[in-house]
Amino acid sequence: MKLDIRQMDNMDRVFAELTRAIESVAWLERGPCGHLPDYRYSRCYHYDESKHSHHDLNADLVPALRAGGVAVENFEVGDGDTRTYAYIEQYPNLYVTLVDLGSVVDVKLSLEGEGYWGQKSGPDGAYALVDLGTAARDAAWALLFRAGYRIPDLQRAEQTCARALQPHQYCLELGMSRKGFIELIRRIYFDGPEDYFYALLNRGKPFEYRGEKSLSPNAEFFRSRGRPPLYVLRYEAHPSDEVFVIEDNLAYKFMRFTFGYTPHGAGGTLLVSAAMR
Questions:
Q1: Model-level pTM?
Q2: What's CA 119's distance to the chain center, in Å?
Q3: Where do the DSSP E strands lie in the chain?
Q4: Per-block mean pLDDT, blocks of 10 residues, the chain (277 long)
Q5: Is residue 217 within 8 Å of 235, Cβ to Cβ?
Q6: Chain centroid to CA 23: how far?
Q7: CA–CA separation, 121 vs 151, rounded Å?
């Protein structure tokens, strides 16, 4: 039965069917996205680049999509990436873009003549957003990927967290020390001198840092024209937890995240909460 994809519930169902077809390929695992991670109809799948390539995508993923009613051609190697375009046969105005970035397949849906779903009817630059719980999970995974964690590690850490969670929260049990967590936050979200960060932290008082964690030569240009900083990091002093609030204007323009780490034993609990700004 054809659904009215102007309604979000119906669009969710169509997206779920598409992702089920992709997830039938055993060597593709869902992971964090680097581009538009808060877009509701975006998903990224990671694979072991030492074992698979676009040849395997053509051999396994393309047939799986076709079996799910998706009209799709083979991935073709371009100048900067390997990609293919597709559409779901019942919805010819709904485009599926699949980009192989090498170890990551980035999947996004868009509407012909409108762009991302919700973009035409929403405020300038807005689009349909993921729910807060999903955003919290993806932000946690993206941070921990930078620390060397991989999908099986995160899945185990997720399953061992026994906290009662609110819909906007996500947690993991990690074998990371308090110092390791603080250093990870500093490395990802602080572009000033290391000794300055620890001088601020060791005061034991809240602080805010507005950074341009980017090698782009345009950072000063944007700052001089009143553009928002690329990152805003706030530290909140708590007696038993390390709590950092992050606004990442590169990836999450409409949300902020609170990363709270409670050390215990040889590791600790990471609790991530998402909120709209």
A1: 0.86
A2: 19
A3: 29-31, 42-46, 70-72, 76-77, 82-88, 91-100, 104-111, 169-174, 207-211, 231-237, 242-248, 255-264, 267-276
A4: 89 95 95 90 95 96 94 90 92 94 94 88 78 96 92 94 95 96 93 93 94 54 63 90 92 92 94 96
A5: no
A6: 18
A7: 36
